[in-house]
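Record type: monomer structure entry
Structure origin: computed from sequence
Chain ID: A
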Amino acid sequence: MLLFALVAHEVAHGWAALRQGDDTAYKLGRLTFNPLPHIDPVMTILMPIGLWILSSGQFTFGGARPVPITPRNFRNYRRGDLIVSSAGVVTNFVIAIGCALLFIGLGAIHELLGGAGTSTVDAAQRMLSWGMRLNLMLAVFNLIPIPPLDGSRIFYHALPPALGARYRQLDRFGFLILFGFLFLLPSALTFLMQPASWGYYQLLHYSVPFAVGEGWNIFQR
């Protein structure tokens, strides 16, 4: 589910760029849901596994290899950059809502069929519960205005030109700032991720009445 969320996020950037006039990702074959072209050994494999182990299965996160974007190809630079930067985040929000709707649909169908396939539906709802949470976390995390996250591009366009130019100078140090933020200020990250938790519990509020078991509770031991 995490891999699908990461791949969908990057494919959304590529498709949005194509619509805005940049076919770089398309020509390089990155507009595909085949996960292989999107895998980064550290961000896609080592980080999620490491976080999963360190958190005893309660938390995981990661990233895919960014799709190549050439902003100068956009028909309108500012509009195109905003749309492309927002595309991944919007996609993850949509997937989270889609997971909730599938959760509800499976529960309703299970009830109509007289309770057939309880264990299978329970397992599917557990996966969909993870889908809600992971996609919301990915969306909110990417809105943090630290390069190279999507939020930094959106924030840049909200600044006055002179201040925006100075802000863009942080791009070269983006990964250092980001990893410093993650490991030195974990409490700040927890605070910034609260909207993801709020959104997750809002989706659960409407989904859990259709649960067929306890599989949806991804926090149970």
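Annotation 1: The chain has a mean pLDDT of 89.
Annotation 2: Residues 2-210 form one domain.
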